[in-house]
Structures are given as structure tokens and as C-alpha cells.
Amino acid sequence: MHSILVLNGPNLNLLGTRQPEVYGHTTLQMLEDQCVAHGKTIGVTVETFQSNHEGALIDAIHAARGAHDGIILNAGAYSHSSIALMDAISSVQLPVVEVHMSNIHARESFRHRSYIAPVALGQICGFGARSYVLALDALAAHLREKGGA
Ligand code: CA2
User: Fold this and answer.
1) How sure is the predictor about 24, in pLDDT bands with cuts at 50, 70 and 90?
2) Ligand 1: which residue has its CA nearest to atom 3?
3) FRET pair for 11, CA 20 to 30 Å: which of 20, 55, 56, 134?
4) Residue 123 CB coordination number (10 Å)
5) Secondary structure of the chain: what % helix, strand, coil (to 5)?
6) Is pLDDT at 149 greater than 60 in this prediction?
7) Probe ligand 1: pick from 104, 107, 112, max atoms within 8 Å of CB?
8) Strands, DSSP E only, in 62-134?
9) What phi, psi does 129 have (nearest 5°)?
10) How many of the other CB atoms lie within 10 Å of CB of 10?
């Protein structure tokens, strides 16, 4: 069975508690539980991790090599700034699907640029918590097509 890491970045621990008009009412715990439950229905193992710290996210990406088959990454605002995260993704050579709850292309111009996108398999944004479910489906299908475990 393939294993997927769902990795969330800064401030996403606040989901469901503030700005519901932008990010909805789903808490991070609910979101992670949904990912694990959806993983079971499509036959993949899902592990979750969230950190507000860039280095901890980089460590999690490094540790994913050999432990997981792919990563779903919402790097939060680091998506728009972090060359270090981009380099970490390139270095582990695991398929990464970039997700965002909001449609970053319909928001402020500084959110239009993503340093994750050029090194990601693809990007899903704008569907709220459903972005993660769509990303799981896409990554699981990619891993199945690629073959292996
Ligand atoms: O839409 C997304 O998922 C984002 O990655 C969320 C980031 C934002 O910086 C990106 O541009 C787009 C912000 C996460 C902040 O999450 C909060 C949730 C509730 C209350 C306050 C912040």
C-alpha cells in the first residue's frame, strides 16, 4: 500500500478558528482526520504533520524519503517565499502535490507566485478542505500508474 504524507505549514493550525470566510470552518484536526479516512477508502496510508517552522517542514520533507511515496504539501505563506522548501522538495525526488484551501491566483498578487509549483507534480487550490481530497486522489492515481508498492 502506498504511503502519503500530508504536510501543513504555518498558521494552518488556526484553521476553523479565524477567517472562516476565507478558509472555512474545518479545523486542522478535522482536515487531517478526513485525509486519513479518505486514504482508507482509496487504499493509501496517510500520515499527517503540521509545523509553523520552515526548518521543521524541511526536516519532514527529508524524512519522507524512504518513509513515504509522496507528499501533499500546503506550505502556507512559505509557498510564496521559500527557496529552501523548493530545494528540499527537489532533493528528495518524491512526487509532491501542492494544495491550498483558497484560490491563491484570485487573491493578492504576492500569493500568485509559488516556489513550490515548479517542483511539484501539480497544484490544486480553491476548493477549501476538498483541495486535500482531490490532491489525495490525484497523487494516489499517479503512484498507481507509476507502479511499485
Ligand atoms: O489557501 C491556502 O491554503 C494558503 O496556503 C493559506 C495560507 C496563505 O498564506 C496562502 O497564501 C494560501 C495562510 C494560512 C493561514 O491559515 C489561517 C487559518 C485560519 C485563520 C488564520 C490563518
Assistant:
1) confident
2) 100
3) 134
4) 19
5) 50, 20, 30
6) no
7) 104
8) 70-74, 96-100, 122-125
9) -60, -25
10) 17
3-class DSSP assignment, residue 129? coil
Please tell me the least confidently modeled range out of 21-30, 41-50, 56-65.
Answer: 21-30
Q: Could you identify the residue written with the cell 506550505?
A: 75
Write down all domains in the chain, each with its CATH number in brackets.
2-147 (3.40.50.9100)
Cell 502519503, residue?
A: 4
What is the phi/psi pair of residue 82, to 5°?
Answer: -100, 100
CA-to-CA dists, residue 122 to 11, 21, 88, angstroms? 23, 26, 17
Alpha carbons 94 and 68: distance in angstroms, whole number = 8
Q: Which of the residues are catalytic?
A: 23, 100
- What's the residue count for the chain? 149
pTM of the predicted model as reported, rounded to 2 decimal places: 0.97
148 pLDDT band (50/70/90 cuts)?
A: low
Copy the grid coordinates of residue 86.
523548493
